[in-house]
Every structure is written in C-alpha cells, then in structure tokens.
Design brief:
The protein has helices at about 1-5, 70-85, 120-130, 135-150, 185-190, and strands at about 15-20, 25-35, 40-45, 50-55, 55-60, 65, 95-100, 105, 115. With about 190 residues, it is an alpha/beta fold.
Length: about 190
C-alpha cells in the first residue's frame, strides 16, 4: 500500500494486484504500470532485516536461505511476456523488485537495475514521473484486457471440503483442542 500511495499521481495506467494465467501457469502481479513505450512490472517486498544476495542465493545475514524473490520476478516477467504475445502485444517489459521497508538492508547487492532498495525508491518514483504517458486506445485496450483476464479465485488456496452438518461443534480445550469438559490434559495439569 505504501508503494501504491507513492505512485498514485502518475499520469498513466496503473493496475494493482492482478492474478493472471498463461497456459497452465498462474502468476500474480503486485503493480503493473503501462506507459507509452513500455510496461513496468513491479513486485513489492516489505522484508525487514538484513539480507545478502550472492551467487544467486537470497539469505538472511545469519545464513538461513530464503525463497529468492528475483526468481519469482523473472518467472512473472516471462509469463507476462508470453501472455502479451498471445494477444498480439509486443511492448517491452521492465521488471523491478522494490524493497519498500526502510528497515531492510541488502548487503553485497548485485548491480542489477531490477533491484530497487529502500533508499532508491524516491529516485525510482521520480524516474517514473518523467516517462512519457501519451497513451493511445491500444494501451487502454491492453489494460482492459488484463483486468478482464484477472482471476478472482486463486487456485493455490486449498481449503478442505466439509459439510457444516457433519462438523463437531462446541468449546475445545485450549491445550489439547479436544471437545468436552473433561479432557485428560486438564485433569492432570490443573
């Protein structure tokens, strides 16, 4: 939301939180900005703490490895390009990973222009404001197409199937989660 508030007054098309599908692949886009000559694909991360990015690994400063957000960004970039080509659009896409939290530090960052650190966010926003936004009907049709392709149900959310009538109802023990007034845990540990 913080990033969205920073780009609120851009004079162009901004689409937030898209869930799209190309082939059998579902992918999510935090922010998509359509300018005259290019599209910006923005993946916003609110990580906090100290991290390292080296040799293709993204890890905390203590050494525990994390899911690499660059892999997700690159995969999303590829999927978006395939989707646009499927519908006859050939605009260049610039994919950026924006770390918005001021309490985030990345040691040994690569000089990849796709990584926007918290101290670079303001200059990145200024850069976006300078881009030409002379949009045509083609750009508006693209935005309408992407919004129409937005999936409202995420296939990765897996809720168990159940019927309300068959569920046991009542108050459960706070310790062992069993139903009833006299669970073994409470009798032995009053």
């Amino acid at each position: 939301m913080k990033f969205d508030s920073l780009i609120r007054d851009l004079d162009t098309l901004v689409i937030n939180d898209l869930l799209l599908e190309v082939g059998d692949t579902v992918f999510q886009i935090d922010t998509l900005i359509i300018f005259y000559g290019r599209i910006y694909l923005i993946d916003v991360k609110n990580f906090e703490g100290e991290y390292c990015y080296e040799d293709g690994l993204f890890k905390t400063i203590t050494g525990s490895e994390k899911k690499d957000p660059m892999l997700q960004l690159n995969w999303c970039h590829l999927a978006l390009r395939q989707l646009l080509q499927k519908y006859g659009y050939n605009l260049p896409i610039e994919a950026c990973l924006v770390f918005i939290n001021p309490d985030f530090t990345l040691f040994q960052p690569s000089l990849k222009p796709q990584i926007i650190l918290p101290t670079q966010v303001n200059s990145f926003i200024k850069k976006l404001h300078k881009l030409p936004a002379k949009l045509s009907d083609k750009h508006h049709k693209l935005a309408d197409l992407l919004v129409s392709l937005h999936k409202t149900e995420n296939p990765y959310v897996r809720l168990p199937k159940y019927h309300y009538d068959t569920m046991e109802k009542g108050i459960t023990c706070g310790a062992c989660h069993s139903f009833g007034y006299f669970c073994l845990y409470n009798e032995n540990n009053l």
